[in-house]
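P.,

For your records, the input lines for the assembly:
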Amino acid sequence: MDLALAAFELAKADGLASVRVPQIAEAVGVSPRTFNNYFPSKEAAIVFPTSLRAARMANDLADRPASEPLASALIESVACLYGPEGQDGLPDGWLDGFRALVAAEPALHGEYLKAMAAGERDLADAIASRIGAAADDLEPFVLAAVVVAAERAAVLHWFRQTTRRSPLADVVRAAIDMAVRGLTATSC
Amino acid sequence: MDLALAAFELAKADGLASVRVPQIAEAVGVSPRTFNNYFPSKEAAIVFPTSLRAARMANDLADRPASEPLASALIESVACLYGPEGQDGLPDGWLDGFRALVAAEPALHGEYLKAMAAGERDLADAIASRIGAAADDLEPFVLAAVVVAAERAAVLHWFRQTTRRSPLADVVRAAIDMAVRGLTATSC
DNA sequence: GCACTAACTTGCGTACTACGCAATACATTC
DNA sequence: GAATGTATTGCGTAGTACGCAAGTTAGTGC
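Structure tokens returned:
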């Protein structure tokens, strides 16, 4: 969606507060009313790509061979979203934008969390069908929530770091591995 | 804060959409402007008690004896927030309100997530000081995120259930236990 | 008792967002 | 060619967010 991209670019350049909905609409060549037909707010538009990526996670998990252990399948389905920029990993400029916007603006942080939560539901379904759980089983929901939480913690932690000792994908991988293994392997 | 309580009650009675900020202010006896001095939106006001409860989690963890294993300390600090209604557990009417509002309205769900995320940061600090981690260590953040995520998954799952086979506190306990143990004990 | 300060509250005005409604344009189908 | 469905738009309205300045109240030191 062009609107989402334009909103993202404008917000990255001028800051979220100074971007106006009519401005975004004009950049794409539609009316402000049309913008609101697609997005309820500029925040939602900016985060839209993230929610797409979150939705992809469940698909990636479903595409993995059923023979693969759940733990590694989870780790890889998530981590491949943070592969090298450009290809199927991160879109260009996402890192800069994320740092400047989502990590900084509380309003966007809320939208980001909502997007992740939406993806979490899909992931829970994918997990449930993979481990053959009943529909009202608690476990898939907890697993999905835990994995997404670890992913989010890793991303935020990576942005907090001043010195970059390892690429984002590796940090995400480590975090999910940590979450999947639980406290058993750590300092009890 | 009276405003938060009034907002909650009014929203519970009339639905979120039909509650107006001036209405909330009038119910407490202040001006609408004063409302916005304290809360940026009615959603934030409604969720305010939840964010207080989230903040309490970190304190509860810090108050637990250092000799207690981290896993059980985490489980209990969270689960005691969901104790029997009235005392130090859930405030009266919280369950009904939560089901009718937070679980149903997407806007409130976003605020709820933000509140949980804020509490998560405090929890991460408490965990870090408990296990003596460095400030830039990934582990406390992942642990905090995982625990909060499991808590949230349990609450939402409990509300999705039509038949209540066990009290909320037990479900929360089970979820956090599950998260803390990781995938090791489950279907790999 | 008297000024002084700080925190809280309020009214006013402004900018912006959200959205219902109705009208239009365009493409698709029968 | 007529009918139907979808996308877009302008307009109008309701409501929220917030800066600013003025007023109130409580507390403090002299």
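Two observations worth noting. The longest helix of chain B spans residues 106-131. Chain B has one domain: 43-181.

Regards
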